[in-house]
Amino acid sequence: MELTPVDATGRLRVSGVCTVATAPASTVRARRLLRDSGHTQIVVDLSGLTQLDTVGAVWLRRLPTLAPPRIRDVSLVDLPASLSAFASTVQGATAAPPRVAADPDPGFLDRIGERAYADVSAIMSFLYLASDLTWASVVALVRRRGIRPGAFIEQATLVGADGVAIVAVIMFLIGGVSTLQAAAQLRQFGANVLVADLLAIGITRELGPLMAAIMVAGRSGSSFAAEISTMKFTEELDALRTMALNPLHFVAVPKMWAMLLTVPMLTVMANFIGLAGGTATGVLSLDISPATFINRVQNALLLKDVITGLVKSFSFAWIITIVSVHRGLQFRGGAAGVGRATTAAVVSAIFSIIVLDLVWGLLFYLR
Amino acid sequence: MTSPAMAGKVVAVRDLQVAYAEDAPPVLDGVTLAVDRGDVTCIVGGSGCGKSTLLKAIIGLVPPRAGLVQLLGESLYELAEDNRDSLLQRVGVMFQYGAMLGSLTVGENVGLALQMHTSAEPGLVQDVVDAWLERVGLAGSANRMPSELSGGMRKRAALARAMALEPEILFCDEPGAGLDPITAAGIDRLLLTLNERQATTLIVVTHELLSIERLDGRLVMLDGGRVIYDGTAQEARVAARSDLELFFHPR
Ligand SMILES: Nc1ncnc2c1ncn2[C@@H]1O[C@H](COP(=O)(O)OP(=O)(O)OP(=O)(O)O)[C@@H](O)[C@H]1O
Ligand SMILES: [Mg+2]
Questions:
Q1: Which residues of A touch B100 (CB under 8 A)?
Q2: Are A154 and A296 part of one and the same domain?
């Protein structure tokens, strides 16, 4: 593309090929030529153009915006007849309608108010969902209408059975690490043998339920949120509605049942494997005989600890389901929205688990 | 509540106003429409003018901001859940993009309503599913997942699912879009057969001129959020109106 400097009569000639390949790179030169001219009116002569495309035509249309304020008028003239198909684009006939005026910048208090309103309505919708889903899960036990036979087994397999391996491996390692850490401290007091007690208590009260729940939140919470947000995106939830099925009950109740059943089961397994990992590490790396170690573990194990651990895991399963279903339903906008819903579900679920854990800790062990 | 003009209509919409957000401008603004039992109605209009929104408002998915919506003589949005569900069982809906449940097979999708709402035993459900799939040209696809079907196949499966409970009213959002002309004509014939044999009321959103011609029913055209034409297709074709002219004879 050729740009000849503005001549004495205020003419800027644009000639040659003005396309996506040449136009963008000429912006700087065009701006300089316009700035260097002493005129207040410029006529852009297009008669020498040989080729144009949409990018080129829009580039020409934008020439006036490149002119310094001193230049009051830039007009485009003499578009060759062979390029008349682009005339309306060059003349800006297809210009976008003016945007709807945005709200004037809201004040500080307005923004706080809006934010608070959004938070309060999110909390209300969460509480509503929590009560609706909980109630539906109980009612559906006796009245199965609206729940697809087989859905529960499918979900229980996905949440429970498929999660066994990873929970087992992680708990074995956690048991081992806990033993080593405990031993490092207790050795200083010559109390090596108390490692077993600490392990038994730590695993059954805290680490077993907590790690099982966190693994389930990462595996199943994320997939619940992804599934539900995708179903919203593809109008599957709407389709269920029109088939006279309550989407929430149809989709979420089997998930709730599966979680409430399998997370405590995973926790029992996590406790066993964690203790096994700890015992193995203890026996191999500290000089405690297997018999002593196992004996002390057995003595330190309290039914109360195991049971409170199970109660906790039951509540974790409940909160993970509700949080991830809620995040899935909050979904807005496209594939990226599904990703955001999934991430938000895992983060919120783990956060809620920790908060609930603290609450249970205060209830059970505060004397 | 029901005015005489609305009595006996399977679908009655009056001064309907719908918006997707509180502060958004309405998508539909003053739509009035009444459909008689057994009629065939084609809804046409430019892309984005609110045809799908109108269907969704009628079947209870988008609560109206103002106006009256009645389906089979009942105000859907005011019913208790149980009553609404039994009303919806008399209605079939085929969504614009199919909306097949991705976690179930095509056969399970088609048979879902039968399985959930009737006491049909699994063998019967299976056979009905096969019969419907065959009628929409998808014989043998029952065990495939919706994600394994092409766009057009998915819509045909969705049509089979919408018809599985033998609805009194069938809503179809662009049944012919994405189909080859032969399959599209087959779908139109199938819809007409249903209409003749079971007096199924058909409400069809479509852009295909051929399809409008074949269905040969009432034509409702939307524009700017309102109904701008309501009459027979033949009259529309010869009406001296520039907006209709452009639709039927685009240059
Ligand atoms: N979920 C939604 N949220 C916000 N706006 C929406 C939503 N769905 C549709 N709209 C808007 O409503 C208007 C009408 O959409 P609708 O899907 O009803 O159009 P349509 O007539 O079916 O178009 P098409 O022929 O392309 O399917 C559009 O302007 C669209 O942007
Ligand atoms: Mg549509």
A1: 236, 239
A2: yes
Specify the number of domains making up chain B: 1
**Strand order from edge to edge, sheet including B66-71:** B28-36, B9-18, B66-71
Residue A106 lies in a domain: no
Q: Please report whether residue B98 resides in a domain.
A: yes
Is any Cβ of chain B less than 8 angstroms from the Cβ of A335? no
Inside any domain, residue B6 = no
How far away, in angstroms, is A328 Cα from ligand 2 center?
24
- The interface pTM score, or ipTM, of the predicted complex is 0.92
The residue type of A243 is M
Number of folded domains in chain A?
2
Q: Is the pLDDT score of A129 beyond 70?
A: yes
Q: What CATH number does the domain containing B172 carry? A: 3.40.50.300
User: Is residue A209 within 8 Å of residue A317, measured between CB atoms?
Assistant: no
Tell me if B218 sits within 8 A of B39, measured CB to CB: yes
B225 lines ligand 1 (CB under 6 A): no
Chain B contact present for A242, CB below 8 A: yes
Cβ within 8 Å, pair A244-B113: yes
Location of structure tokens 């701006």: A31
Average pLDDT over residues A159-165: 93
Cα radius of gyration (chain A):
34
Is A168 in the same domain as A315? yes
| Structural domain boundaries enclosing A187 | 129-365
A199 and A268 share one domain: yes
Same domain, A76 and A146: no
**CA B117 from centre of chain:** 21
Instruction: Please state the pTM of the whole predicted model.
Output: 0.83
Q: Using the beta-carbon criterion (under 8 Å), do B116 and A146 form an inter-chain contact?
A: yes
In this structure, what CATH number is given to the domain that contains residue A28?
A: 3.30.750.24
8 Å CB contact between B170 and B164: no
Q: Per-residue pLDDT tens for B152-198?
A: 899 899 999 999 999 999 999 999 887 888 888 988 998 998 899 88
Set of chain A residues whose Cβ sits within 8 Å of the Cβ of B85: 244-246
Q: Which residues pair with B232 in a beta bridge?
A: B218
Full residue range of the structural domain in which residue B144 is found: 36-59+87-248
The whole-angstrom distance between residue A242's C-alpha and the CA centroid of its chain comes to 29
